[in-house]
Amino acid sequence: MYHLDKSLSQKKKLRISSVLKNKLIGCLKTIKDEFSEDVNDNFLDPSKYENLQLDENDFDLEDEKPIIVYVAGYCLHIALKKLNWCPLCKDLMSLDRSMEDVDPSFSVIANVDRGGLKYPSEAIIDLVTYNYCVVKKLTSGYFWNIFKEEQRQRMMAIKITNSILDDHEFSYWPDCDNGHAAIDICNRILYSATNCLLNNFCKMKNDTNTKHKNVRKMLTFHD
Asked: Which one of 48, 91, 121, 146 has the largest count of C-beta atoms within 10 Å of its C-beta?
């Protein structure tokens, strides 16, 4: 019975991982290597979001953790590619995939990736987690009414994330000896992560609107 339960549990995890990957893959494909916009744009005014704060409840993300880790791994992959696969940066920002004791949060990468993605370090995961929490707040409730009017949503989300990282005294990894500054890599990762998360939000919003329209059509037809 134990082996049967274990087998069923593994199959369930694989099915879940497959579904999660399918939901993410469309968003991740839209991430481009370009990094042309200035994330420190002084023309962006985040003062209207000064009440946006994160507390310990916002970081209660047990169910979402594997997704966040997968996004972090993908964004790290893009950053390292842009850095010509700098071995020093790779050592600073990723973990050994051959580790025996792997945290369950790496399950999506382990189950659906073919080995191309690195296991992101704790600092990279924390960075993307902060960004996830910020985007989640910006795209729901009170702040969505303000944020939806922004012309440059991506850059505003990054600026707010950076501000909160400073407030929380976020610990960056060291600069590498090849001259790659941690803060620059951080902004590149935030750029990719914000792209993915906002695109995913728009997709979910469009799917919801489509479902509502279909329901209205059905009700009209039956009337």
From this structure: 121
